Amino acid sequence: MSSSAGKKCLRSAVVANNTVPRNRAPMVSTGEPTMSDIVGGMASGHHFLRIQSYSSTVKGRPTGEYIRSHHFTVGGHHWCIDYFPNGTDKAYADHVSLRLILHQSISNPAVKSQHLFCLAGEAGTEAEQAELLSLEKVRSYTPGSLSACAEQFIKRTDLEASEHLRSDSFTIRCDIAVVQDFRAVYTTGLVSVPPCDLGRHLGELLETEKDADVVFEVGGETVSAHRCVLAARSPVFAAELRGPMKEGDVAAGGVMRIQDMEAEAFKALIRFAYTGSLPELSARRTGTTWSGSS
């Protein structure tokens, strides 16, 4: 075969291999794009454990002996806290020690989570607590098994000299974040909706007092808030704010006086209206009467 004939055959073969058969239509994308996700996340919450008659829990109780709290639920699982008034062992006999226990798992035999103990009076804002919690080690828990302890939670001498021990009582806050299982889901659209954190945002609005338009005076303290939030959350507030105090706004110096209630309890009531959660209270709740001044 001559050189020119060989080149002609080669060109014919290339053309044949790259020719679309006449009975096959070219592929054209005409449908909408689809999407699937691998999703997980964290379910978090916190629990307050109040230790009353602290001195009685210390006296006559050997090191290593604990008192177990009632169980509570965070992230769909039941937890409890072991309180060691004289430490977990001899090395920590001068400390108060704590231990988190997975009391019962509703869905999984093993649970991965992060936890953080602190004195209730030392807790920061919810955003600050969430950031600190995210730095903690992820641990695995099974129901009834022993988990990592906070052996050196606080020295008893430091606790007894602090403002946190009042009337022989103090309160511990335990934050927990549960790692949820990852799973594959089909997404009907390309928009991913984030989890709702409205409570956190409203809590920050309350703390910053931005655009507050009503002031309450209670127990010698003033508390600023937002009429629209309180009126939407409580028919009692709605009646008061739209009634006698309707015209008395902050700019005009209007103040709503709350009688027969301590400031701490009232602040907790307002925070619940904004966030749906209550902080730990040391004050006794009492009856409330209202009066307005402008």
TrEMBL record:
Source domain of life: Eukaryota
InterPro entries in the cross-refs: BPM1-6, BTB/POZ_dom, MATH/TRAF_dom, SKP1/BTB/POZ_sf, TRAF-like
Domain BTB: 212-278
Limits of the MATH domain: 44-176
Pathway the protein acts in: Protein modification; protein ubiquitination
Signal peptide: none
An annotated GO BP: protein ubiquitination
Stored SMART domains: BTB
Protein name: Uncharacterized protein
Species assigned in the record: Hordeum vulgare subsp. vulgare
